[in-house]
Amino acid sequence: MAAGPVNPPGQQRRPLTEVRAKSRPRCDPERLTTHSRTVQASVTSIKDRIASAGVLATQPSFWPRLAHAALLHDAGKIAEGFQRQLEAGGPLWGERHEVLSLAYVDLLAPAAGWSTDDRLMIATLVASHHRPLHAASSLGGGKTSLARLYTEHTDWEEAFTCTPGPQGFLIQVPRGLHHAFLAWLAGFLTLDPPVSRAGDPTLAERARTLLEEVLDAWREPVKAHIGLLAVLAQGALTLADHAGSAHQQLQTHMPLLPNFLARLPYSPHLHQQQAASTEGHLVLAAPTGSGKTEAGLAWAAGQLATMSGQPRLVWTLPYRASLNAVRRRFETALEPAPGQKTADIGLLHGAVARTLLAEATADDCAPTPADARKAKARAAAMRLFTQRVRVATPYQLLSGALAGPAYSSVLLEQANALFVLDELHAYEPHTFGRLCAAMRLWERLGSRFAVLSATLAPPLLAMIEESVDHQVTLHKAPHGTAPVRHRLVLDDAPLTDPASINRLRSWLAEGHSVLAVTNTVATAQALFDSLAEDATAAAPDDAHAALLLHSRFKNRDRDAIEQALLRRHPERTPGQDRLPAGLVVATQTVEVSLQIDLDRGAVENAPVEAVAQRAGRVNRRGYHPDGAVEFRVHAPQSHRPYDKAAVQAAWDALATLTAEGTDTLSEQDIDRLLHLAYDTTWGKQWADTARAARDGFTTDFLTFTDPFHDRSEYAHALSERFDTIEVLHRDDTTEYQHLITGPDADPLLASGLLIPLRYSQLPTYNATYDHRLNIHLIDGDYDRQRGLRPPTPPETIL
Q1: Mean pLDDT per segment of 10 residues, for the chain of length 798 residues?
Q2: What is the pTM of this model?
Q3: Half-sphere exposure of 360 toward its Cβ, with a 13 Å CA cutoff?
Q4: Were 275 and a residue from 299, 578, 603, 784 both cysteine, which residue would form a disulfide, CB within 3.0 to 4.6 Å?
Q5: Coil, helix or strand at residue 194
Q6: What pLDDT was estimated at residue 795?
Q7: C-beta of residue 255 within 8 angstroms of C-beta of residue 343
Q8: Cα–Cα–Cα angle for 228, 230, 236, rounded to 5 degrees
Q9: Inter-axis angle of helices 32-50 and 224-246, to 10 degrees?
Q10: Residue 676, number of CB atoms within 10 A of its CB
Q11: How far is CA 207 from CA 157, 160, 601, 623, in A?
Q12: Among 610, 609, 629, 605, which residue's Cα sits nearest to residue 619?
């Protein structure tokens, strides 16, 4: 099977037991046979998890093909060139091991009885588990495709049979080693080894022929159904490879136990009981503070008993601060695995998660300092997949649409899963539409979703229902579930007007805890500067008397502020009298999933759902001794960052409500506001925009007609469509690099240094892209209490 002499001069015979798959651990690098067995075992774990859910049920050969691809995916690492590059200081081989692996697929196919389709799919998965088969365009974008690496100009025999070098010819696969490896593979498959015959093709010829078949098969677009199955298969092999390389076991323990409602310390509300008894997709509308989270968990617990495999629960929220709060809540509220103190809940971060996924698919090369980084990155990336309960932003889920080895595992993990979309109202129409497209895809993958919201306008519900094929059950908490908690006041004066600020000062002086919510970070920072001393005077012995929360903090600083906020302003309990005075100034980051409770509220007008959510942080459960408390909505100085028409529609709806004589914000009042706001020209345009975004996202990202083309150019486009990015302050570069690559690397700690920005804000902060760290670096004035401000302009010298 291999050309040339058995052992040319100067080439030592290498037994199969010394053929390595990895360069680490340095003391005893992992053997190729061991790694192959481990990855195939990981496929079994993934099969147990995903089962044959959704579209997978249409292809019975899906899992058998994967098992064979897992065994053979790294077979080409037997090449002497690859083995030498694993040695300390070894030369780079320069060829792709997965291409040589195709020769062993070709050799074993007849003996294994694989059909033509089986052989092609196994070969496709083997060939594509590191690199795209084809470039997406003439420009490319990511790793060089195999079609560009291996062309009509390739000398195949020189590459994979007998390679010339400075010390003579190097036989890539000596005959004795080849036969030993082939016998091992055949034995593992319980087959008789293929018999060598005179005139058989060399390994190089077999690899070339099969690669050409694979490239031809996927050169032109395929049917979307076939492409989706192919991407899912690639995701399964990539996930198995990562799990095997990181030596991470997929968790089987589900922290969410059946009959969740029976574990609550109170009698469940009617809407919680209805959620628990709903099978399939759910939409639940219930007031803030009425136990929506528990209802969502009860729904998910009920689904588990009716689904095959080992479904995962993914809880999505729009803001990182709320992700952290929910994660901590689940860690204590759900059941830990035996021997553990708290439940293991996954947390998917933005930029760091994407970096880890990219690092985890890096090619094996000569041992360098990058080896340690790659090993840590692979292990850390796998942690994102091991847990069965995770919290995430929608971006992390939708990134699976990018496909390719770095993302297809993300997509596969969305099969046979449960998704709770918490506070879905918080997304602008483009994102809402893309999430509806994702719901349609999840349904095809055998998954189910629940939407939870205190404010869900009729057009949003209608669009959810029309986006999927299966029934969507709607439950609404009965009117009266929550008491009347607010006295609504409309104020034409801006929140930053001197009279408005003086009113906030008087509330603080009277001993109240005060919430002020602005629409922009700059306004929040200015208002905080105006009132911080007054809050400190009202509670002089409290370091957290004045707190500022917005998105433009480093993640770790925002986490600390959020925890202080939760400790300082917890939900009031029945019969509880006065709570300590204090000030909280915030932007929309305070609107969702933060269980805080303040005495008085003054907010800038915003889209109607945002106004209702801001009210939900004031007299949250209606236990204030004064009864309904004042909640003041001020006309904003600017509509930004919201759509101007959305803000105006909310103001007009509030004005109509007050003109009708209503001065409260009860559940019925909020329903009325939603109908008034969306029954406008703006409301109809909102729905049209959302539908267009849904259909466009489906066409651009979710068709998978070119499953093995390079889609890296889509990553930037997807990020821009979400208009958010995480950046690093230039002063933190050294610390970030240490946390990512150092001896005690911790990606989650590294993510604590990142600051969310909009793409449009990058020029304001003099952003430059660091290709080494794969992140934007920015300038600006940063303060742990106030967050990031734009850099100070240079002084003009006249």
Answers
A1: 45 86 80 96 97 97 98 97 91 95 98 97 96 71 86 96 87 95 96 90 97 97 96 94 86 94 92 97 90 95 96 86 79 94 80 43 44 50 75 80 76 95 85 94 97 89 96 92 92 97 98 97 97 96 95 89 91 87 94 86 95 92 92 94 94 96 89 94 96 93 89 68 82 91 72 88 95 92 96 69
A2: 0.86
A3: 34
A4: 299
A5: coil
A6: 64
A7: yes
A8: 105
A9: 130
A10: 19
A11: 10, 9, 70, 73
A12: 629
Question: How would you classify the pairing of strands 472-476 and 281-285?
Answer: parallel
CB 227 within 8 A of CB 365: no
Contact residues for 30 (Cβ-Cβ < 8 A; gap 6+) = 20, 21, 22, 24
Specify the amino acid at residue 73. Answer: H
Cα–Cα distance for residue pair 432/688, rounded to 1 Å: 12
Question: Residues 285, 297: contact at Cβ < 8 Å?
Answer: no
Question: Token pair of 300, please?
Answer: 């998910």
The tokens for 554 are: 């480093």
pLDDT at 692: 97
Q: Are 121 and 233 in contact (CB under 8 A)?
A: yes
The set of residues, in sequence order, having a beta carbon less than 8 Å from that of 318 and lying 6+ positions away, is 393, 394, 423, 426, 427, 592
Neighbouring residues of 761: CB distance < 8 A, sequence distance ≥ 6: none
- Residue 227 CA to residue 44 CA, distance in Å, equals 23
What gap in Å lies between CA 466 and CA 109, rounded to an integer? 45
C-alpha to C-alpha distance for 177 and 76, rounded to whole angstroms:
12
Contact present, 54 and 442 (Cβ < 8 Å): no
The helix/strand/coil state of 454 is coil
**In 3-state terms, what secondary structure has residue 92?**
coil
**H helices of 9-167, where?**
32-50, 62-72, 80-85, 97-112, 116-128, 146-149, 156-160
User: Cis bond leading into 25, ω under 30°?
Assistant: yes
Q: Which helix (H) or strand (E) holds 776?
A: strand 775-778
SS3 string, 318-386, reads CCHHHHHHHHHHHHHHCCCCCCCCCCCCEECCCHHHHHHHHHHCCCCCCCCHHHHHHHHHHHHHHHHHH
Nearest to 293 by CA among 319, 260, 262: 260
Phi, psi of 181 (to 5 degrees): -70, -40
How much is the pLDDT for 6?
A: 42
Identify the burial level of 30 via C-beta atoms within 10 angstroms of its C-beta, where 0-12 means exposed, 13-18 middle and 19 or more buried.
middle
DSSP annotation of 161? T
Distance of alpha carbon 364 from alpha carbon 360, whole angstroms: 10
- Identity of the residue numbered 172: Q
CA 695, 697, 699, 703 torsion: positive or negative? negative
CA dihedral 561, 565, 566, 568 (to 10 degrees): 130
Strands (E) across 377-455 are located at 389-392, 417-422, 448-453
The answer, yes or no, to whether the previous bond of 201 is cis (omega within 30 of 0) is no
Backbone angles phi, psi at 37, to 5 degrees: -65, -40
Count of H-run helices and E-run strands, the chain: 29, 21
Residue 225 three-state SS: helix
Rounded to the nearest 5°, which phi and psi values hold at 356? -65, -40
Which residue's structure tokens are 């005690």? 744
Using DSSP, state whether 55 is helix, strand or coil: helix
- CA-CA distance, 386 to 389, in Å (whole number)? 9
How far is 715 from 386, CA to CA, in rounded Å? 24
* Residues composing the chain: 798
Query: What pLDDT, on a 0 to 100 scale, did the predictor assign at position 451?
Result: 96
| Lookup result for tokens 């996924």 | 357
d(CA 788, CA 784): 8
The pLDDT value recorded for residue 357 is 40
Q: Is 545 helix (H, G, I), strand (E, B) or coil?
A: coil
Cα(240)–Cα(120) distance, integer angstroms: 20
